[in-house]
């Protein structure tokens, strides 16, 4: 079979796995990189904000560790803002949804970033822009205390009352704007990352590649578990939480929405582990559990499925890294996201024990 024929076969299988038509699956795979990458010009963004909001901005500085479209906006006439000029592939409705959730969180006095102005969403060169107030602060402490802070943030968030204005599904990373929504979208995105490079996989790596793809296909997406308002990416990276003078503050709400609350908590628990060798860290687990359960007591079903849900985001990250390595022609060194399986089992068991003490 020719390489072109092989790719057509991959597209057909991708369509079957994702429930798409062939043309949709083809677009899903061939347009992947363009949908995710966006690097706007800071000077033009300043001009847009000046005209749109009647402010006097003087500098746009890239702020995010991982995102090229997030800027700190310093002003002569007031406090600094954050401007997120999302990839053009992200619909404006998604950004309006971010703003709606931030308004809800402000009404609930939840420690999150705040909108900079009432009309915080605008269009800039085909890109939807969201402006929030810059949160002055630093990184969370690199200690057990960090996991207590994050557990408390998640517990408070999941315990918030349901609100008719917050209906959209959330929990997926959504780096590909076409894969925003419930945690299942992370698994579909992971399949797209793999399928997009299927025909480029070295023969020596084929068996391992197929095992990874089968694991993604069979992963538990959390359907049927108790739901809450999810942040979708609240671990401990500086892109997602800041320690202000008063309290930890959750930022970057692109992945937020309603979904199985365990998906949020499982990702945090995965991050508690020690390294070299990889093993559970009981103190960090106890800190996260103790803080979270002040607000939420998981059900038996949630605790039973904890190990399985720890794989959702980690499979996504593994597949994201695999695609990047294949395209860059570099060795793939990110299997550690899902290794060893004993770590997942023992960490889930230690977490269940902590909740049941």
TrEMBL record:
A Gene Ontology molecular function term of the record: kinase activity
Keyword annotations: Kinase, Transferase
Top-rank taxon, per record: Bacteria
Domain (Aminoglycoside phosphotransferase) ranges: 71-294
Entry-linked InterPro entries: Aminoglycoside_PTrfase, Kinase-like_dom_sf
Region (Disordered): 162-181
Name of this chain's protein: Ser/Thr protein kinase RdoA (MazF antagonist)
Species this chain originates from: Motilibacter peucedani
